[in-house]
């Protein structure tokens, strides 16, 4: 096992080198081109193209009688193009929606391709063996010639994307705006579609028809969670695509009966799922933690405020309050209150003795500020927005947690440091 | 007789798929159906390994589970992960399909499945695998009974819950206000899509199931506004595709399932052109009226 790994990474075997290079190039160039279709919210069009090139390949073979790359790629290119045009035409000229059109074209073209392929296979033409490598990919058996063809096409793709970066960016984010700036939007869309077809035609030989969509979509889906800046997304997608391609080649070398294409997709998907779950800020877990943090803060502040309200009513600042007393004012479950009080104690807002809980001076200042914000906001709503005093409480209850010190200062100045709120409660200043 | 069995198999698949396809299209979930038909693959392989045979019940359970998992994963990525919905579909089904292919390779010795079969099935073998009773009488192919049962299940499901499916397809908000759970019916419909896919798998393969799910229903959608009529037309077009496909395949000696999908596509093309021509006439007539008044 270990020797195998060492042998792999020594790249002495030219085959290993070709396969690794080929999958890296394919993975990264498909990812870059895929980013733009992804951002144009047409991610699945790549899936349609991947299925639709099969009849083109078969017809090219039938017409030319050879397995010459140039003919096959030309055939694939043409039928890939026809599929895009048909999807567009059907969804624009009938009540059929785009996703239905994509599914329709994808499956019918593929069915037709299978019909032709089986016809060719049964016709007894000896040259046909290997045509089905388009169906399942043949990454593990790439030779120098393949790598050269892929590299040329990939370099072409990357150069075009770099040259037309600004234009592509515009039509990906805001087609209407691009149009209004006088850009040749139709031409650019045509170019992007051609690039996608080219990426699919080459990439399909590595991973096969069904999984091609992953090569286009998944790297960007993952990269999007780490950055919102397009050049960084493109670079990251390319790296993820290349790395996954390489990993697939590596795994299928270490475990020889394992197919390369599906492993490329497995690695890609693993990266995507990790990104979606754990990416900082945009990941699901990060968002979830932020939500919890926010919820805790609101609960904490509500309880602190309750201490102040009780004390204000009973004029008993500094006296301990029992949990039962707090629950009369703010009906949280017993367990929840215990948890909140524990948190507040840890942060130094509260102390506990035998008789109950009371606010520390630090806690009292915090409570006074919250009550002040609440009442200032109520006053602001009644004075400036002419909202009836009995309608302002709910709104103030939400906003009091969010008002920043700057906003607080402006409120105080605008209202002229008022003494009481609309309900005639005293506004506490420090 | 074998011609008859092949056409019957194709028609049963086409009708079950056509009925479900109508609802998929109305819900704008055609590609979710496509995703499910790919994603049931690992379920089938695991069911194979679990039961050690092509036991239909285990397969249906395996596929049903995967169908629900796929739907759930797509919804999870879209709503919780904030991934755009087309990308969620793409990521989910390619992942599960890759997993399925890897499982097939890993257990190649134990699983009687290959990639070709997965992609386009082998309907020509259907008449050979017959059920022979203890008395020795041959009562016809196994697949006919399986697909017949699935077809009956689909018909029963759709006719019993027609109103719920209809309301949740057209106006989920309104359905919720009536106390009908859109989510529940969505998952139930997707389970039926998975059952049908799996039952059709061996005869037509994963991708051609999609042709039967979408093409006849899309054709019917062009031709009528009435949901009941749409379902009936979809079934008729499905049968027509099965018959036409069979004879097309016979004449050029190619894949039967592939030919059926091609014919379904041709029928769609004819309907599309027909609707386009007649609607142009109507448009001209109405614009003429507008000018004269």
Automatic annotation (TrEMBL), chain A:
Residues 360-428 form the Iron dependent repressor metal binding and dimerisation domain. Gene3D superfamilies: ABC transporter involved in vitamin B12 uptake, BtuC, Winged helix-like DNA-binding domain superfamily/Winged helix DNA-binding domain. GO terms for molecular function: DNA-binding transcription factor activity; protein dimerization activity; transition metal ion binding. GO terms for cellular component: ATP-binding cassette (ABC) transporter complex. It is a multi-pass membrane protein. InterPro entries: ABC_BtuC-like, ABC_TroCD, Fe_dep_repressor, Fe_dep_repressor_sf, Iron_dep_repressor, WH-like_DNA-bd_sf. GO terms for biological process: cellular response to iron ion; response to zinc ion; transmembrane transport. It is found in: Cell membrane. Belongs to the ABC-3 integral membrane protein family. This is Metal ABC transporter permease. It comes from Marivirga aurantiaca.
From TrEMBL, chain B:
It is found in: Cell membrane. InterPro entries: ABC_BtuC-like, ABC_TroCD. GO terms for cellular component: ATP-binding cassette (ABC) transporter complex. Pfam families: ABC-3. The chain crosses the membrane at residues 6-26, 33-51, 57-77, 89-109, 142-162, 174-198, 204-223, 230-249, 255-275. It is a multi-pass membrane protein. It comes from the Bacteria. CDD domains: TM_ABC_iron-siderophores_like (cd06550). Keywords: Cell membrane, Membrane, Transmembrane, Transmembrane helix, Transport. SUPFAM superfamilies: ABC transporter involved in vitamin B12 uptake, BtuC. One of its GO terms (biological process) is transmembrane transport. The keyword Transmembrane helix applies. Signal peptide: none annotated. Belongs to the ABC-3 integral membrane protein family. This is Metal ABC transporter permease.
């Amino acid at each position: 096992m270990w020797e195998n790994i060492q042998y792999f990474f020594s790249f002495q075997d030219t085959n290993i080198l070709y396969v690794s290079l080929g999958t890296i190039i394919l993975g990264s160039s498909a990812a870059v081109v895929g980013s733009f279709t992804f951002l144009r919210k047409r991610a699945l069009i790549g899936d349609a193209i991947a299925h639709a090139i099969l009849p083109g390949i078969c017809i090219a073979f039938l017409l030319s009688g050879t397995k010459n790359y140039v003919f096959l790629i030309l055939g694939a290119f043409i039928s890939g193009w026809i599929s895009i045009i048909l999807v567009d035409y059907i969804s624009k000229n009938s009540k059929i929606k785009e996703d239905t059109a994509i599914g329709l074209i994808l499956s019918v073209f593929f069915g037709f391709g299978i019909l032709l392929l089986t016809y060719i296979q049964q016709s007894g033409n000896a040259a046909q063996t290997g045509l089905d490598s388009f169906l399942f990919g043949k990454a593990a058996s790439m030779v120098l010639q393949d790598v050269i063809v892929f590299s040329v096409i990939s370099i072409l793709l990357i150069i075009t994307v770099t040259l037309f970066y600004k234009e592509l960016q515009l039509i990906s984010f805001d087609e209407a705006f691009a149009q209004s700036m006088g850009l040749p939007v139709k031409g650019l869309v045509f170019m992007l579609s051609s690039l996608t077809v080219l990426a699919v035609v080459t990439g399909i030989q590595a991973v096969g028809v069904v999984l091609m969509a992953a090569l286009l979509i998944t790297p960007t889906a993952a990269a999007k969670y780490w950055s919102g800046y397009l050049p960084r997304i493109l670079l990251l997608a390319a790296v993820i695509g290349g790395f996954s391609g390489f990993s697939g080649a590596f795994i299928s070398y270490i475990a020889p009966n394992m197919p390369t294409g599906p492993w490329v997709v497995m690695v890609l998907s693993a990266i995507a799922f990790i990104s979606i779950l754990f990416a900082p800020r945009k990941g699901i877990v990060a968002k979830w933690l932020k939500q919890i943090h926010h919820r805790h803060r609101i609960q904490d502040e509500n309880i602190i405020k309750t201490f102040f309200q009780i004390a204000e009513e009973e004029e008993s600042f500094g006296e301990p309050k029992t949990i039962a007393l707090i629950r009369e004012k703010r009906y949280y479950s017993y367990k929840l209150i215990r948890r909140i009080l524990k948190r507040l104690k840890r942060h130094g807002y509260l102390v506990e003795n035998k008789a109950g809980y009371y606010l520390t001076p630090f806690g009292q200042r915090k409570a006074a500020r919250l009550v002040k914000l609440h009442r200032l906001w109520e006053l602001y709503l009644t004075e400036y927005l002419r909202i009836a005093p009995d309608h302002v409480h709910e709104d103030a209850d939400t906003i009091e947690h969010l008002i920043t010190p700057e906003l607080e200062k402006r409120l105080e100045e605008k209202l002229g440091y008022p003494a009481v709120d609309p309900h005639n409660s005293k506004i506490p200043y420090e | 007789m074998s011609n008859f069995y092949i056409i019957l198999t194709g028609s049963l698949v086409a009708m079950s798929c056509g009925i479900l396809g109508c609802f998929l299209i109305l819900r704008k979930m055609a590609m979710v159906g496509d995703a499910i038909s790919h994603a049931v693959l690992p379920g089938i392989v695991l069911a194979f390994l679990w039961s050690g045979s092509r036991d239909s019940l285990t397969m249906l359970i395996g596929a049903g589970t995967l169908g629900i998992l796929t739907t759930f994963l797509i919804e999870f990525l879209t709503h919780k992960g904030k991934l755009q919905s087309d990308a969620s579909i793409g990521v989910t089904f390619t992942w599960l399909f890759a997993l399925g292919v890897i499982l097939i390779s890993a257990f190649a010795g134990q699983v009687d499945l290959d990639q070709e079969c997965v992609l386009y099935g082998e309907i020509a073998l259907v008449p050979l695998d017959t059920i022979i009773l203890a008395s020795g009488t041959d009562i016809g192919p196994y697949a006919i009974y399986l697909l017949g049962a699935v077809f009956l299940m689909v018909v029963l499901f759709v006719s019993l819950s027609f109103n719920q499916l209809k309301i949740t397809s057209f106006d989920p908000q309104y359905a919720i206000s009536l106390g009908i759970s859109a989510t529940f019916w969505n998952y139930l419909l997707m389970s039926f899509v998975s059952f049908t896919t799996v039952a059709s798998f061996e005869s037509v393969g994963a991708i051609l199931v999609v042709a039967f799910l979408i093409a006849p229903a899309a054709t019917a959608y062009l031709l009528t506004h009435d949901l009941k009529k749409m379902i009936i037309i979809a079934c008729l077009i499905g049968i027509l595709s099965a018959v036409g496909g069979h004879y097309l395949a016979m004449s050029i000696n190619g894949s039967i399932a592939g030919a059926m999908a091609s014919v379904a596509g041709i029928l769609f093309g004819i309907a599309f052109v027909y609707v386009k021509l007649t609607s142009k006439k109507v448009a001209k007539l109405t614009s003429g009226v507008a000018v004269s008044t």
